[in-house]
Protein 1
Amino acid sequence: MLRLAFLFSIIFAHMSFTSPLQGTEQTLSIIKPDGVAGNHIGEILSRFEKNGLRIAAMKMTRLSKNQAEEFYSVHRDRPFFEGLTTFMSSGPIVVTVLEGEDAIKKNREIMGATDPAKAVKGTIRADFASSVQNNAVHGSDAPETAKTEISFFFDKDEILR
Ligand code: IDP
Ligand code: MG
C-alpha cells in the first residue's frame, strides 16, 4: 500500500511540471524594468490571460549587468547593447513562462512591434512603452530561443500545471 502511494506521488510529481500540454507551446515573457516601475504588471499579465495564454511560471527578480549581457548575448555586437543591458539591469523585472496554442507568435502579437511608434494600437508596447529600448516587454522569438530563455530563469520544477 505504501509502495503504491509512493509510486503515485512520483507519477503526480512528474505530471505537474515542465513540458507543455500536447498542441501547446511555451514562451518566455519579461516585463522589463520600465513596465514594472510604471506599475503595469497587473495590466500586462491580464492581457496574456485574456488572450488565452496561461501563466505556467512566474518570478520577480533583478538582473545583474552580467546576467543581462548573457541573456541578450545575441545582440552583443549591436550599437544598442550597452544601453540595453544597463536598462535591463536597472530595476526589478517580472519573468513568466506563458503556455498556450501558438504561444510564441501569440505573445509577439500581444506585445506589438519592437518600436512602440510602429506598434499596433492596443498592443502592450503601443500602450506602455516609451522608446525602442524601453519597450515594456520581452518575448521569445522562436521555439529554440524560448527553450534557452526559459531555462535561463526557471528550473524544470518551477514550471507548473
Ligand atoms: P524584440 O524585443 O522585439 O525581439 P530585438 O530586435 O530582439 O527586439 O531587440 C531586443 C531589444 O533590444 C528590444 O526589445 C529593445 O529593448 C532593444 N533594441 C532593439 N533595437 C534597438 C534600437 O535600435 N535602439 C535601442 N534599443 C533597441
Ligand atoms: Mg528579440
Protein 2
Amino acid sequence: MNNIDFLSREEITALKLRQLFHERGYTRVTPGRFQEYDLFAENRSFHNISSLITFMDADGRLMALKPDVTLSIIRNTPDTPDAQRLCYADEVYRLSSEQREYKALSQVGVELIGGDSAAANTEIVALAVESLKLIGNNTALDVSHMGFVSGLFDAMELTENARKSLLEYIHAKDIRGVSETLKTLEIGEESARYITRLAELRGSARECLDNARELILNAETETAFNELSGIIKANNTVNIDFSMVSDLDYYNGPVFRGYVEGVPAAVLSGGRYDGLMRRMGKMNGAIGFAVTLNNLGRVGVQSPTTKSNSNDWLNVALPKGRLGDSARALLTGKSGEEKSSRKLIIEDAEHKFRYFLVKPSDVAIYVEHGAADIGVVGKDTLLETRPDVYELAALDIGKCIVAVAAPAGFTENTDTPLRVATKYVNIAKDYYASINRNIEIIELSGSIELAPLLGLSDVIVDIVETGGTLKANKLNVTSHVADISARLIANKASYKFKSKRIDEIVGTIV
Ligand code: PRP
C-alpha cells in the first residue's frame, strides 16, 4: 500500500479493513445517508430519537441523518436463513457524550445475517480480532454475554430497579456500589455472592471460563456459557469482562469491545442482536461489529509531556488542594504536599507516577479522554457528570454528604414547584424525581448558601462536610441525598493495557 501513504491513518485503516472484509467474502452495502425518521422512532429504545437530526424531504416525509448503520441494513436485507455477509464504510451522526455538539463518526463494519449462530459468533469474533491487529500492535478484545448477566438476575428474581442499579455499578466496575446495592436487597448471602463474583470476573478468557462455569444457575446462564465457551475455544486471545453490560435492549447474546493501545476509548464494538431482528419482523439472527475510525489518528501519538518513558509510568489526574494532597499520600504512602509550587505537572520518578493537578470538577474529563490513566475524584462529581470511566475503589478521604438545606423555620408549599439552587443540577433533578417533587432549578457555580438567604431559591442542594458553612448562614439540613467520598477512577482503555499496575494500586489503597 505504498502509493497511498499520503492518506490519513483513518483512511488507510478504512481501506485495510474493507480489503480484509472483501477477502472474507463480505459484500459491500451502502445504505443512504438519509433514512426515514420512522425507522428510528419505531426502535426508540435503541437510539435517543430526541437527538436525531431531522428534516423534511421534497415529498414531505420526515427524514433523519442516520445515527446507526445496522437498523438500515436489517430493514433492507431479505430475511433468508442462508448466511448473508455484508460490510459497510459509512458515516453516522450522533450527539457527542458531552451533549454539546453533533459529530459525524466514520465507521467500517460487518453484519453476518442468518446462518448457524454458533459458527457466525466465532467467525465474527475472529474477524474482530484480525481487524484490531490491522489498527495497532497492542490490542485487546473483551467479550461478554448478555444472557449471562440477565440469566443470573432472573435466577435471583431481581426487580427492574435492582437490575438497573446493579447494571450501572457492574458497568463501572464499582464493586463497592454492587455490594451496597446487594445489602439493600433481600436475596440471601449466597445469591449476593454470585452477583459479586460476576461483577469481579474478568481477565484472560481461558482463566475466567472455569469461574464463569460456576455461575451457571439456570437454562439461560447455561446457554450463555456454552456460547461464550464456543467463541473462546476458537479465539483464545480474547478476554472476558462482564462489566460490558450496556445496551441490553440492543444486544441479546455475545457482545464484545476492542481496544488499541494509545486510543482512549473502545475502537470496535459489536454483538449479536437477534432480539432487534425479531422486533423488525425478521425470523433470522444476526451478529456484527463496527470500527469507529475517528480517534485512530492518535494511535502511537503521544503528547510532548508523556512521550518519554510512557509505558511503565502512570499518568494520574488529581484535584488541586487538600484532596489531591491526601490522594498522593495514599498512592505513595508519603506526604503529597508540594509547598508553594505553581507546577501543574509533578513527576515522581521513584513510584513512576506523573501527577496532573487540575480543577476537581475536571479530573474525570482528563481520565475519560485518556489524558490521564487514573484519577481521584469526589463521588459527587461522578454522580453529576456520569463520565464513561471505571470506578475502581472508594477511598477513605474526601468524605461528606450531598444534602438539601433550607433556612431555619422554612415550611414548604407543596402547591408550587420548589425552587432549588445548586451546582449539582443532575443530582438534584434525580433526587426530586425519585420523590416525585416538582422543582425549578437555579444553577449556580459557588456560594450556593447565599441563594435562599436572598430569596433566590427556597432550598439548596449542596455538599456538606463539617456543616460550618450551613451553620454560619443559619441553614439546616432537611434531607440527606447521598454519601460522598473520593473514588479512584480509570480510563477504560488504559485499564486494558495497564491493568496489572492499576490493580496493584487498588490493592494497596483499599
Ligand atoms: C463547598 C460547598 C459548601 C461547603 C461545605 O464549597 O459548596 O459551601 O464546601 O463545607 P462545610 O460543610 O465544611 O462548611 P466550596 O468550599 O467548594 O466553595 P463554593 O461555595 O465556591 O463551591
